[in-house]
Amino acid sequence: MKHTTIKDIAKKLGISASTVSRALSDNPDIKEETKKLVRKVVKQFNYKPNPIAQSLKNNRTTIIGVIVPEIKHDFFASVISGIEEVAYHSGYTIIVCQSNESFEREVLNTNSLIQQRVAGILVSISQETKNGDHFRNVMNGGIPLVFFDRAYEKIPASKVVIDDEKSAGDAVSYLINKGYKKIAHFAGPKSLEICKRRRNGYINALKKAGLTVSKELVLYGGLHESDGYKLMDKLLKENIKPDAIFAVNDPVAIGAFQRIKEAGLKIPGDIGIVGFSNNKITSLVDPGITTIDQPSFEMGRKAAEILIEMIENGKGSMKKPKKIVLDAGLVIRNST
Amino acid sequence: MKHTTIKDIAKKLGISASTVSRALSDNPDIKEETKKLVRKVVKQFNYKPNPIAQSLKNNRTTIIGVIVPEIKHDFFASVISGIEEVAYHSGYTIIVCQSNESFEREVLNTNSLIQQRVAGILVSISQETKNGDHFRNVMNGGIPLVFFDRAYEKIPASKVVIDDEKSAGDAVSYLINKGYKKIAHFAGPKSLEICKRRRNGYINALKKAGLTVSKELVLYGGLHESDGYKLMDKLLKENIKPDAIFAVNDPVAIGAFQRIKEAGLKIPGDIGIVGFSNNKITSLVDPGITTIDQPSFEMGRKAAEILIEMIENGKGSMKKPKKIVLDAGLVIRNST
């Protein structure tokens, strides 16, 4: 007897294979009704969404490799949770590696995952990564690859991202509408595409409002709290007084926040502040920090879903890379 | 002497390097016969694809399985970072699973890790776990097992913990010395050993100071922010007014903190508050929350080190379980 596939179930129900797959992974986008139907047919067909059959066929494991810059970063921890959730319900496990923002380590992580014959790989690239040969190796080896948040742009792989430029523009336009005129940007490392996009959003918003873009108000640095703290310290020491800070991410915003408070300045009275990511912490500090709500858990879910679809549909699905852009709204709190 | 490579072995046997590599990774497509030959030559050449040689001997991978209740919980994210750090430098990768505090899912995770022939398993048990048969299976299968933070006490496995009772006692004694007299305890779920120990520490400290232990001041609940919020809400509604809260962990402390602030009460003036773990957030809220500094990253490192030692030293090392108790000091901030 022929082995039942997801496609058979989809055909029987007159829905797409991807809907079946998402129904099986209990995706909240799929109606309960549909899920019930799918489960019923799965039972009838005695379909086993156990990916071991697939894994045997392509000589791979049922492991998904995940490479992030840092596991304990709130954003990535939450993405990983989302990935694990979907993987678990689809019969996969996840190997988690951290690059520690090092290109070399990212390459080693990637090679190790290939060696371990993972079924697919999910990556958010390190801030040092400029060369993508290791990712080309993955794809040339027929291993599905999906980027999330930080994509390597020069190869045609699927990715799940937000519109960083638009979101940054929204945040800065909001500041301008609130009356802030001298807005500094703590921009992160120059090399990272997502940082460039957020910087572009900042510049566009200023230009659109007829404000000048001043070089001394765009400061580059890392992505941690200590970086935000140092940059704010630098501004204070140089007696450059912006009336608001737009930070490339929440840890940097928090670092600036701490230095501003230490200086006895008032938020939002003396300086307004906007972060990026909506890490838990931004809602708990006083005043709460206005930020972009980057849907981290959902990003993990989505990236895992696309990857598993690619794994289960075979090589054909790798030829048409998907780009999923998740919504990221502005969360307004008292820091502005 | 030239380092032996897979190619040397392939040449010697007149087979392809890829066959050697697949034989070494125990690929099911390679005949047992070939595998035996490869192993023999590997031995002759003293070839060490460290730690693959080891993995071959025991027919396992170089993967360490990690089971935590929740990846995105600050404490566990940091433990996982520590584990990955040590694993990476020792040539291992980690599969991370979350039980979501569900016993059933923990059992499924464990079985999946066994099936994937992991080299060893690190676990922090779910709050539902009362039966340890799945852990016994792991140990009976000769797979090294180390618990961290939340250990299953009824089997003789190694563990890395802190002295929860002593730390809790220290925290409560500190509150008493500060003049607080009516100290409530938000105690977490009754089932978890670490919660029992923290509760014992609380009770001991009160008794030592000659204070009465009042049942209405010990409240049970979950381990999340929402639980702390609800319990504080309950106290306020019932008009029970403690002068301090000792929370079983930081998320619970943060939840209580939010509810107290909402009620317009002053911290530490009206109510003092102490958490447990030293999550990042406790240093960033205003006022900062006094808490026990639980060395999460170090706990991950240590647990991984012990496990890898057990993996590499073979079965003998499993007979003498180790108990590592890490130091956890009190971090005093402005909430008390």
Sum this structure up briefly.
The structure is a homodimer of 336-residue chains. By secondary structure, chain A is of the alpha/beta class.
Overall pLDDT metric of chain A: 90
Biggest sheet of chain A, strands in spatial order?
Answer: 2-1-3-4-5-11
Distance between the termini of chain A: 65 Å
Order of helices and strands of chain A: HHHHEHEHEHEEHEHEHEHEHEHEE
Could you name the CATH topology of the largest domain in chain A?
Answer: Rossmann fold
How would you classify the quaternary structure? homodimer
Please give the number of β-strands of chain A: 12
CATH homologous superfamily name of the largest domain in chain A?
Response regulator
Tally of individual domains of chain A: 3
Rg measurement of chain A, Å: 22 Å
Write down the overall geometry of chain A.
elongated
Give the structural class of chain A: alpha/beta
Count, helices of chain A: 13
Beta fraction of the residues of chain A? 5-15%
User: From the coordinates shown, what is the CATH architecture of the largest domain in chain A?
Assistant: 3-Layer(aba) Sandwich
In the CATH scheme, the class of the largest domain in chain A would be: Alpha Beta
Largest sheet of chain A: 6 strands, parallel
Keywords, please?
alpha/beta; Rossmann fold; six-stranded parallel beta sheet; 434 Repressor (Amino-terminal Domain); 3 domains; four-stranded parallel beta sheet; homodimer; 336 residues
Q: Could you walk me through the main structural features you see in this protein, from its secondary elements to its overall organization?
A:
Two copies of one chain form a homodimer. The first copy, chain A, folds into three domains: 1-48, 434 Repressor (Amino-terminal Domain); 49-161 and 296-325, Rossmann fold (3-Layer(aba) Sandwich), CATH 3.40.50; 164-292, 3-Layer(aba) Sandwich (Rossmann fold). Helices cover 45% and strands 14% of the residues of chain A. The first copy, chain A, has 13 helices and twelve strands. The first copy, chain A, has helices at 6-13, 17-24, 32-44, 52-57, 74-89, 103-115, 133-140, 164-177, 193-208, 225-237, 250-262, 281-284, 296-313; strands at residues 63-68, 93-98, 120-123, 145-148, 158-162, 183-186, 218-219, 244-247, 272-274, 291-292, 323-326, 330-331. In chain A, the strands form three sheets. The first copy, chain A, has a six-stranded parallel beta sheet with strand order 2-1-3-4-5-11, sandwiched between helices. Chain A is elongated, with a radius of gyration of 22 Å.
